[in-house]
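notes to self, project folder thing:

trying the whole complex as one job this time. last attempt i did each chain seperately and stitching them together was a nightmare. two parts in total, labels are on each line so i dont mix them up again. if this works i'll redo the older ones the same way
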Amino acid sequence: MTESQESHTGAAPLLEARGLTKDYGGTRALDSLDLAIAPGEVYCLLGPNGAGKTTTINLFLGFVAPSAGQALVAGLNVSTHDRESKRRLAYIPEQVMLYRNLSGIENLEYFAALGGQGSLGRERLVEILVEAGLDGDAAGRRVSTYSKGMRQKVGIAIAIAKEADALLLDEPTSGLDPTASSEFSALVERLRNRGVAVLMATHDLFRAKDTGTRVGIMHYGRLVTELSTAEVGHADLERIYLEHVSDNGGPR
Amino acid sequence: MTARTVLKNEWRLLMADRPLKIALGLFVVLLGYALTNGVVWLRFQERTVEATTSGNVERASALRQELEAIEAGGQPSSPFADPRSPRVLGGPSGSHTAVLAPGPLTALAIGQSDLLPYYYDVNIYTNEASFHQNGEVENPLNLMVGRFDLAFAVVYLLPLLVLALSFNVLSEEREQGTLALTLSQPVSARSVVTVKLAFRALVVAAIVLGVSLLGALATGGFGSPGRILLWSVTVVAYALFWFALAAWVNALGRSSAWNATVLVGAWLVLVVVLPAAINAAAGLLHPLPSRVEMVTAQREASNDAVNRRSELLARYLEDHPEMAEGVVADEPGLGALSWAATDAVNGRLEEVAAEHDARRAEQTALVRRYRFLSPALLAQEALLDAAGTGDARFADFQSQVRAFAERWREFFVPAIMADEQMNAGVLADVPTFSLADGDSADLTRRATAPLAVLAGLLALIGAAAGVGLGRVRGAD
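result (full assembly):
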């Protein structure tokens, strides 16, 4: 383990990439990414398909091994501290896929227990699901009857139950209707206020500006620019994004 | 904690999965049917054994009564069946039936007991032809494929159930998307898959061993705890082999459809094709002489013997000089002449039978050598040995009957050669058959090799699966 650098807020970062690089065969999917996300920050990674957003998240999850550099969670190198780093992390993929034949409560109970939370009790589980925005009546129904938005809420509930320090979101609002997207953003905001560091990969510029505290634009595996959402309006963000993702250099 | 969590979740998934519950229920019904078949066969065999045993007693008693009546001045019931003649008393009408009692767990594995004779009528005419005939008329389909008993269900169907429960143990999680969420928790794919398979193994073992123990309980098999232990260990090891294979295939990271194809292919090769190929190779490389040849030899030898009885008597006495004293030198009796002819027929049959047995031994050796290629053959061998219905017990029984037949002849032939008459007093000295069944050391010795190889295969594939699953990091 190495000492973490400070994030731009001055606090020790909960998520940090140092020269993080990933090659798949001869293709560089991620090129020397340096990133530090502090507690209470929502960092949105923007970029077209294949820019390296999901690869970055997979590297923080330890799903793939870096070709060079390090991914750190609360100062722990993911490559060498797989389980310890995962204890501090929660992850919500683009499609939260759950056990269809089990209820929301049963799914939450299982994943929360796997995450190290032990047995929470039915009352507490329902409480968490309601906190995540799921209707109390729906909590006991089979997940096969859930909409995508409801499954995403169970995903958020799993993150809440885990009391994770950092949250990784991979295009979480993709395919959600505006109301569900807005509810989702509100939940992320709530977690942020609890001091959770959030890394969100998204195509949704509006949501990034609305939810994020910082935005990083990626293209061909590189972080090409980084800006604070407080400093730009929606239109500026779109303009800057389009400027940077115009085809100015192919994959290496 | 992880193990308990995954076990609890697996139980919930099983309870919520109707098709899976139906498949398990169907398997239980099949096992029940298999056990019923075994019990029906066992009862039939027990009735046969009881009938032959009481037949021995009744024959001896009838002969004693007739001999005592003759000694009291009566006449034999038939001039051609005078029990005072050693040819009659030692012949078919005075024969003793040597019986192999059913194996302790016959209800679980009928094995060879419906194919190989489990009783022989032993008399002075018992010869090699007697050992190459099957007294029971049996349904040829039963003989070809074997009966549907528990051992059959374990060897052939258990792997299919195991594969149905485990072919997608990891691939389904990947395909339905739950693997990503699972592996984002502080757990490894290896530990989760191991617990998931352990749960399924527990369900399978509980069903198969439950039905087996029920069968043993209902048929008095609990008198042989060592055999029940061997049966249980074999069932568990064989099931674990298939679970390990499924884990290994899952660790390769392919689709559920690919896993299913490969695993069913493996079942087909290891359970159906390889055993059949080994049997075919044994038959092709070491073909058995035809039974027709044996019958022909018997007839030719009989005709020849009848034509050359005097010559044969001389040859017999050359071979058995100890008998010469008893034979009336100038005019040998009918019994001596007849026995000399019988002995000549036996000699010719022994030549044919020796060739048959040698080929059979070569076939057996070949099958024994290559049985290690198929876990199904190994499991079957261990299960039949545990049940006491395997080849070894029947071979041992036949060899003891051969020795008994020899003792029978040694008792009666000198009297035949000397034209002596028997009386009721000799009945107490007539040999009787008593089986010396193999002890637990024999059982252990025979079971060691197949179980050790099965355990070795399990360890090898389990290790490969462990390494493969250890490499599964993400949901890609």
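what i see at first glance: The two ends of chain A are 30 Å apart (CA to CA).
need to look closer tmrw
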